Amino acid sequence: MASTKRRRSRRLRTPLSRGQRIAAPLVTFAVLLALWALVTETGMVDPLFLPSPSAVAQALVDQAAQGALWTDIGTSVYRITVGYLIAVVMAVPLGVMMGVNEWVLSAVEPLMDFIRYMPVVAFVPLTIIWAGTDDLQKFLIIWMGTFFQLVLLVCDAVMQVPQNLIDFGETLGMRKHDIITRIVFPSSLPRIWDALRVSLGWAWTWLVVAELVAATSGLGYRITVSQRYFATDVIIGYVVVLGILGLFFDQVMRAIGKRAFKRWEGRS
Amino acid sequence: MSGTDTGNTRTAQDVEPRIGVRDVSMSFGELNVLEHIDLDFHENEFVAVVGASGCGKSTLLSIIGGLLEPTQGSVTAAGQPVTGPGRDRGIVFQQPALLPWLSCLNNVEFALRGEEGLSKAERLEIARRHLADVKLSGFEDAYPNELSGGMKQRLALARSLSYRPSVLLMDEPFGALDALTRQEMQILLTQVWEANRMTVMMVTHDIEEAVFTADRVVVLTPRPGRIREDIAIDLPRPRTQEMIATERFQSYVQHIWDLIHEG
């Protein structure tokens, strides 16, 4: 009994219990936090460079009490929602068309591939000239950072749809348009959703880049302002908040996808 | 006279074949897959096409289905030249092309949406009946991911039968199933077909399956595929499992085996 148990736990990829799965990452975070507290609370590191966890927490509480934290989050979430949704609404139809039509694919893919490798950061100055420093410029940067990647990911998702599903639609005498909307698109939805989830993560990066360079509000703006006052506690606090927000949206997307697409083959 | 039907009796020789394959050759680049195929499929006839893997039997099915265009020759369906896929030629694929977001009932109903003059209620009623035919009653509201491999293929079969194509093309329909399930499927298919005859072309590499289900077995040579022999299977209907052990059945199997393996 005991020997078989020991042998089992030594196997690669032995699954964990639910409790173990929750405990393991908590331990990782706790160890990291303890290390951070150790080097800061003992005065080993100048708090100007690295403030203690409690100082960071206090800074966040202050920002929250003043209301600055909430308006900053609101502004940034608004920008990401609009910029990202515009990218999605444009990328999904184009990606689907590329995935089903060789002409569209041949005409558009090389361009997308080319633009994809242009550094979005380098476009920040240009977008400021074009669109100023208002929300519009943030939308533009988020759009540029996600649209071109997303088009190719959606196209790939559509191309993964098995040929015999398309053949089946044709033997039913369905029109091309109906085959695309009623067979191909729904079949590719789980992969498209994955693409949306991954690219939403990138959207956060581009948002902060845009807000760091030129903005008068938002999470990235607060970080830039804090740098002027050497408020490292606020900077670290905001970076943590950005991490939490990104993780939160990712988990929400993941949960929705898991629930909505549980019936598709090859997904648990 | 005895009431048993050998299946290959034809009333008139000059009746327009359901499917006519005329001097069809197919090559992919340098590779010749099919050469000078001439075949007729008659009304309510069950024809199995067998051959070594790579002999082009699935390619022939795709050409008849209109999914591939032959390099040479032509195919007619009810006298009309085949120019593409169509509702008159239903296909059951080796991997059942089911729609995962629809229930079993709605997967069948989906195929009936192209039928004119049917209300949704009528479509669902027809779908329900065809699920019963393939013994999937009680699974109307189940989804494809909840079905076993054999059940999925039964669902695909029900779906293809539901809209009554004039020819049913089956491309190694049980090839991906385990041996036991495959046997069950062969019996079920034979029962469904005997109760409700239609023109069927089934491609298979399983010789017993071909002899058990079909009225005629067409043997193709290894690549490039040509017709080696066209054999009428003179076994009574309904076919039963006991027949498999009979000398007559086994002599068909042996003969076809020899044809395929003599190289």
UniProtKB/TrEMBL annotation, chain A:
GO terms for cellular component: plasma membrane. Keywords: Cell membrane, Membrane, Transmembrane, Transmembrane helix, Transport. It is found in: Cell membrane. This is Nitrate transport permease nrtB. Residues 73-253 form the ABC transmembrane type-1 domain. GO terms for biological process: alkanesulfonate transmembrane transport. CDD domains: TM_PBP2. It comes from Bifidobacterium simiarum. It comes from the Bacteria. The chain crosses the membrane at residues 81-105, 114-133, 139-159, 201-223, 229-249.
